[in-house]
Amino acid sequence: MQFRCHNMGDEWMQHINWNTVKRKHSHMMRKGFALTILCLVLMVQSFCAFAQEEELFSVNLFNRIYLGEISEEIPEAYLDQLTELRETISEYEPNLDGLSPVDYQNLPLQYFVPSDQYEEDLLIFGKVFGKQLIGPCMILKQSDGRKVFASFGEDGRINGKIRTVFPDGRFYSESTLNGLRYGYLYENDAAGKRTGKKWYFQGTLVDDWNTAAISVTYDDLTANENGFLLKPVIIDGIVKTVFCTDDRIGYLIEDDDGHVYLTWYPDKEKRLFFIAEAPILEEGEQVHLCGCYSGLEDYGKLTTLPVFDGWKITSGRVSSGVTNENVLREISKWIKEKQDEEVDDREEKLPSFVMVSAVADNKEMDNLHLADTYVETVYHPTEYWNRSKEIIGEVICQTEDLQKLVVETDEGDLFIVICKEEILEQLEGRRVRYKGKLYGTGRLPFLDHQSGLSGYLFLPEIRLKKYKEYALK
Predict the structure, then answer these.
(1) In angstroms, rounded to a whole number, what is the distance separating the alpha carbons of residues 375 and 277?
(2) Using an 8 Å Cβ cutoff, are 126 and 74 in contact?
(3) Which residues pair with 147 in a beta bridge?
(4) Residue 243: phi, psi to the nearest 5?
(5) Across 345-358, average pLDDT
């Protein structure tokens, strides 16, 4: 149903007998009366526009709402482009109350045209149930002919895998959750060969974050905290301190002028949309990073965290201190002593950032051709996320979390294996073949009494899928 608003302004003016308006009325009163009439006309027009908008169909496309018209009468010019979509639809089974697979297949294919208020020249083809698109769809970008194949979930947002196909055969593949892109965008040529990988941060490509990043002085950040919130900012400096919590790594970065910044590296799946395209950083490294500014953070509160002097990753058994069964107790005692020493009621607040990307000295890598070495796996956990991994080794210690074991391989490399607590007794003290998926980088507190060196061991984590006892040498 379409609402039409007739322009009634002229008709209203015809019914006004201006001859009855006496000349003694002031010019100001006539002007005020005309303005009143104008306001009434605008109110009627606004009401009609609102009523018309209420009847428009809405589509949530990557968490942006588009209003427009939906129709079953698909123009003949587009019918030949819908073959692949029809094939995908034929295999789709909805998981929505009140909509059986048979009923879904019987729904007509429709197409959505955004209203003129949007610059994008999009057409969306799919099936409608209730007041939303549901199941497989094809988004056609008319200006360049690209086709985006995706699927609308029960909540009306795009979820799952997305494939973008260009007229020359090139295609992209990516993933979405709750309408937001995450992880990698994979670029492929027409033959299916991978030609590039780009990382998403909070649904936006990291390349776009880096391009938009601005250089801001320390004084500007501290003096105008709200003016830069959530904006991408460039920081250049040296890593002064590394510290960790359960699900993120923190760095204190000092610039050339001696100003200190705090940046967080969230590297676990619970922060799926905030995983930075950055290597694990170490104390003393020169770093160029882009961070999303989150305001000023009280530095005094950070003294409650286990702050260490940092640690240099090496392969092989790092130190006998790792296997010391009392190492965690020793470190807890050491942390308490350090905290007591550092209580000085500091009130300094530091500019704080969530890390988006970082480039460090001697940490370059080719994300299209992974070296698959132990060191690269440790330093670049996001590049190896969810990759299959198999190791053979022996448990040498257990972390505070009873579901995590530290395993040393025959090559002398250390891994954290995440497993179910009930199988721990079957694994301890035995040489076992472990198979699972890489799950980022875990942290193991470390203290070497002989050298006095303390810090964190950054070890690759494997989420165990299956294991088998391996013959001892």
Answers:
(1) 17
(2) no
(3) 140, 165
(4) -145, 165
(5) 81
